[in-house]
Amino acid sequence: MNTVATAAALSLPSSLCKASKLNVRKGARGGLKVVAIFSEEGGMLEKKNTWSTIFDVEDPRSKMPQCKGKFLDVNQALEVARYDIQYCDWRARQDLLTIMLLHDKVVEVLNPLAREYKSIGTLKKDLAELQEELAQAHRQVHISEARVATALDKLAYMEELVNDRLLQDRSSTVCDQRSPSPSISTQSLDVMKRPKKSLNISGPVQLHNPRLKNFWYPVAFSIDLKGDTMIPIECFEEPWVIFRGKDGKPGCVRNTCAHRSCPLHLGSVNEGRIQCPYHGWEYTTDGKCEKMPSTRLLNVKIKSLPCCEQEGMIWIWPGADPPAVTLPSLLPPSGFQIHAEIVMELPVEHGLLLDNLLDLAHAPFTHTSTFAKGWSVPSLVKFLTPASGLQGYWDPYPIDMEFRPPCMVLSTIGISKPGRLEGQNTRQCSTHLHQLHVCLPSSRNKTRLLYRMSLDFAPLLRHIPFMKYMWRHFAEQVLNEDLRLVVGQQERMINGANVWNWPVSYDKLGVRYRLWRDAVEQGRKHLPFSESS
């Protein structure tokens, strides 16, 4: 990139881009200061013009607080991060000035008039020196990138402190007041007495809060709902049945006949109406009874829910509030093709299943027979995310992940050989797998899971017969490795155990989901970790 392009990219004045000579000298604290600039015509621009101050910036390192090896509170971490950002800004200015000086040297060496007075040997020497300087500038760019990464790590650490403060404010800390046994060491006693930050997720699973119903929920894949079929579901402890009306649009009505409470899904769909198998009463997608064989037609109607279809999925709105105008998009990213859409009914509460899906640190211990076979156990697992988001990426695994309210988890996984995932990210991988998990709350102890798997490679796999059965078999294998643990968690939670007793750093996304859900159930106007808050 030449100087003009570099300056243009950084919105610098065009006068700075001319092939000109910079007269520079060392400034205070090792910095570089621009003294004067001579244009091609030889005119001198004053030092104190509108743009010379771009480089006349003091090196902030002398004022940077010395906090290495110290534990920082939120304010101290913020101060360190502020100085880090100032230093990165100062360093970028110096790098830009270096590039400009090198550009001048290139112009000077390659100037046809200058070549007439230089021997070939001199030109080779000048070019070799210039090459070395360019290599040094290249190394400096890498150093600057490392500094930026360090600054981001410090910001992530500061965010951890803020999250810890949120947890401490939210939860009560209880210390064991019982007298310690003589066999307990002093160190163990310190651990026992140390206040803990926790989320209180314990006791019998309660009925779902009505405020959780005021969202659009995906309940089925479009491909599974033919014109003459029905899909019975449970949602928030209530039975519903989905079918298509005369216009082909889906509808959702209560799965209970108004006559004698017979399950409607045991019947059939006739001309866009669902027929009860007991006495033949027929209902439209808005719940109105339009046919009552063998008796006079009465004004009878069963409850229905707002229902729509988007991007290959059927959605319902089970809440009492007016439905939102827009639905979230759940399509895979551009370049991916859908290979499998699977539905499973699972014997666990949907929040516990979401906790599991939002946690990747368990993979090398739990999924040793499936996708994590051969994974090494890293010394540190981190989930890096913006301060106000419900999405981010895992380090050191090449996996991006997002919780999308109210019950969806989206993830993109960089495909790599088992045991060689550390140090990579999704951008470094050439092939990827994209997953969508929808955890529909069926009842207190049951979840309807919708799983969609997409790939950005191997499109021919979609046309291989019986491939969908192989994908389902693999998905069930992975899920069964999780279920035995999550079911055990649920049993202990019912008996009083707290399944979020001691969150740690890699639990960040799961903790944010729980804090978001608590805010919804408490009716807060502004929800945490959302763009609107």
UniProtKB/TrEMBL annotation:
<dbReference type="GO" id="GO:0009507">
    <property type="term" value="C:chloroplast"/>
</dbReference>
<keyword id="KW-0809">Transit peptide</keyword>
<dbReference type="InterPro" id="IPR050584">
    <property type="entry name" value="Cholesterol_7-desaturase"/>
</dbReference>
<keyword id="KW-0479">Metal-binding</keyword>
<feature type="domain" description="Rieske">
    <location>
        <begin position="216"/>
        <end position="316"/>
    </location>
</feature>
<dbReference type="GO" id="GO:0010277">
    <property type="term" value="F:chlorophyllide a oxygenase activity"/>
</dbReference>
<protein>
    <recommendedName>
        <fullName>Rieske domain-containing protein</fullName>
    </recommendedName>
</protein>
<dbReference type="InterPro" id="IPR013626">
    <property type="entry name" value="PaO"/>
</dbReference>
<dbReference type="GO" id="GO:0051537">
    <property type="term" value="F:2 iron, 2 sulfur cluster binding"/>
</dbReference>
<feature type="coiled-coil region">
    <location>
        <begin position="113"/>
        <end position="147"/>
    </location>
</feature>
<dbReference type="GO" id="GO:0046872">
    <property type="term" value="F:metal ion binding"/>
</dbReference>
<dbReference type="Pfam" id="PF08417">
    <property type="entry name" value="PaO"/>
</dbReference>
<keyword id="KW-0175">Coiled coil</keyword>
<keyword id="KW-0408">Iron</keyword>
<dbReference type="Pfam" id="PF00355">
    <property type="entry name" value="Rieske"/>
</dbReference>
<keyword id="KW-0001">2Fe-2S</keyword>
<keyword id="KW-0150">Chloroplast</keyword>
<dbReference type="InterPro" id="IPR036922">
    <property type="entry name" value="Rieske_2Fe-2S_sf"/>
</dbReference>
<keyword id="KW-0934">Plastid</keyword>
<keyword id="KW-0411">Iron-sulfur</keyword>
<dbReference type="InterPro" id="IPR017941">
    <property type="entry name" value="Rieske_2Fe-2S"/>
</dbReference>
